[in-house]
Amino acid sequence: MSDTGWTRALSDPALEDLGLSGDLVTGEAVVLELRPASFATRALSFSIDLVVQLAVGIGLTVVVATVAPDADAAAVSAIVLGIWVATLVGWPVTVETVTRGRSLGKVIFGLRVVRDDGGPVRFRQALTRGLLAVFEIYLTFGSIALIASLANPRGKRVGDILAGTYVIRERTGAGSVPPVSMPPELAGWARGADLGRIPDRLAMAVRQFLGRAPALHPSSRQRLGITLAEQINRYVAPAPPAGTHPETYLAAVLAERRRRDELRLMAEARARLQREWRRQEASPLSATGTRLIGEDERPAQPLT
Fold it and tell me: Are the beta carbons of 45 and 33 closer than 8 angstroms?
């Protein structure tokens, strides 16, 4: 299936009912639940951080004014300016870099700043976000950040767009989706079916759909089931028995896919053990041997 066709498949409005992150899965189609945080949650988180920063900034300013009441006004102004720059820009940049994207407010609300690929933010990304915050948050009272966040599907403000980051919710109420069980009536068909290389995103969509199906509206559930079954049909032959319910069909495909992956992984692990055993059995003088001369202990032969 071409990339264009796959994009069309996942852009079906029905799939939006799942609330999928849409682009972050592992090679084994394990979903990385990196859901963008809402603007309201981000604003509350930022408010907590801002209160702490203002308290520190005001406290340091009072200390400077108290310790050096007779100092030169220009010097005091420079020191105070440095304090506020360090508090409003240096502090959040340092905190996000050291904690990999978590400030006090984000910890409280279960948020984290990550790169677009899901990785932790670095100093460069944190610095870009911190510098742009001066313009789009402090100088404009958050109006530019609000407009940018509402216009971006991931709720990115301008600093996030330029830094290649976004804020995610680490704590979600959904939890992990349990493994899909094989429907008994399709076990025989699934074992003999030819399963092509199902794209990880499609497998992710099916897995989340099956986990959330009971909570979906009946019409959305039916539409999603049919849509996903049509996409899966492109990679499965022969077709399931006539009259098979789409959800039953999807569950059988995922369960069989997982079973074959587990068998493949077990075979690979067994092959590694066999190779290691053969190396141990080889003569110490052999190029493939790993035993030392005079070493009598021999490993047990792996089970086959």
Answer: no
